[in-house]
Design a protein that fits this description.
heterodimer; A: about 290 residues; mainly alpha; Alpha-Beta Plaits; 2 domains; two-stranded antiparallel ribbon; B: about 45 residues; 3 helices; elongated
Chain lengths: ~290, ~45
């Protein structure tokens, strides 16, 4: 399963960044596929990207809400919420584990030999603040004279934008170098810090900062598919806990918001106590026997 | 499917998709994707 997941990650990362003419044309892909969102964090400023970034799209939709002309219907971004909502309802955070190019990069970074550390658990809540503040509130509330907000997550933080968007674009468009300033170096600093942290802590960005993971995690308890725990088979060897890249305890908590459904725990369990499949119905409540006096 | 919440959400997101298609979200998204995002690359 692990090898299959790696193959999927490679195919999706390459397949959705397959516009290889950009060194010749000197610009990004502009075809109709850009009307579809990638299920993972994949910057649409990447010259090879075929799909749009859902986080960037949401911020731009929200940022444009207050600039809507009187009498015209605002673009609510319903289609982006529909794309993400479908994915979240069906498979929860599975796109983080299988489809996200930046998640794949972090998986590779964690393979670099170094001391490894576990994450301080309260930091996991930070990604919800990133989603609320940088993706929703700032683009909506901090607007210019025309009423337009900016994509603050992209502007301040997004490491995928810096790595997959900015650096390749700067390579093919040297004239952009003269416009670089504080914003760029801020983002480069974040990129270096995040990639460094990803070497030491498994999936650091996904667990601490990713607003897309935060959005998908809202669906974790109701997804159509789930990781099922079969208590009778469990011998409490904790091999599932040791194998989990996001620090979950699959034998204790089903439907964890941190679970990216990479299925490493299913592979690690020799006793078949974990199974991946469609969510089963809850068992009917036991009939209570009423004693009559 | 045994999960009423998932069914309700799938219906909701289908409606959202139809609303988005009919209110020009696809064009908005396409136009967005066709322009180089200067914020993403840290310019401006």
């Amino acid at each position: 399963m692990s090898l299959f997941r790696r193959l999927v990650q490679i195919l999706v990362s390459l397949g959705t960044n397959a516009y290889l003419l950009f060194p010749l044309t000197g610009t990004i892909y502009t075809g109709p596929l850009k009307a579809v969102c990638h299920p993972g964090l994949n910057c649409y400023a990447c010259p090879a990207a075929l799909l749009s970034c859902p986080v960037g799209a949401i911020q731009n939709f929200i940022g444009a809400l207050r600039a809507t002309l009187p009498g015209s219907f605002p673009n609510l971004g319903a289609i982006v919420f529909a794309y993400l909502g479908f994915a979240g309802t069906l498979v929860g955070r599975l796109p983080c584990g299988w489809l996200c190019p930046f998640g794949f990069i972090q998986d590779l970074l964690y393979k670099i030999p170094s001391p490894k550390f576990s994450l301080w658990p309260p930091l996991r809540w930070l990604k919800y603040a990133v989603l609320l503040v940088l993706v929703v509130l700032l683009p909506l509330l901090w607007v210019d004279r025309t009423g337009m907000g900016e994509p603050w997550f992209c502007k301040l933080l997004c490491p995928s934008g810096t790595l997959l968007g900015a650096l390749p674009l700067l390579a093919i468009k040297p004239e952009l170098w003269q416009n670089l300033g504080l914003w760029f170096w801020n983002k480069m600093t974040w990129l270096v810090l995040i990639m460094g942290a990803a070497v030491l802590i498994s999936r650091f960005f996904c667990r601490v900062m990713c607003p897309l993971g935060a959005f998908y995690s809202l669906f974790s308890r109701i997804t159509v598919v789930q990781l099922e725990f079969i208590e009778g088979n469990c011998v409490h060897c904790l091999s599932c806990v040791r194998s989990c890249p996001t620090g979950c305890r699959p034998h204790e908590e089903q439907g964890s918001r941190e679970c990216i459904m990479c299925l490493k725990c299913v592979d690690a369990c020799r006793f078949r106590a974990l199974n991946f499949g469609l969510r089963r119905p809850l068992p009917p409540p036991r009939a209570q026997t009423v004693r009559r006096p | 499917m045994h999960n009423p919440w998932a069914v309700a959400l799938i219906i909701l997101f289908t409606l959202l998709f139809l609303i988005g298609v009919n209110t020009g979200d696809l064009d908005f998204l396409w136009n967005l994707g066709k322009t180089i995002c200067l914020s993403c690359i840290g310019v401006g």
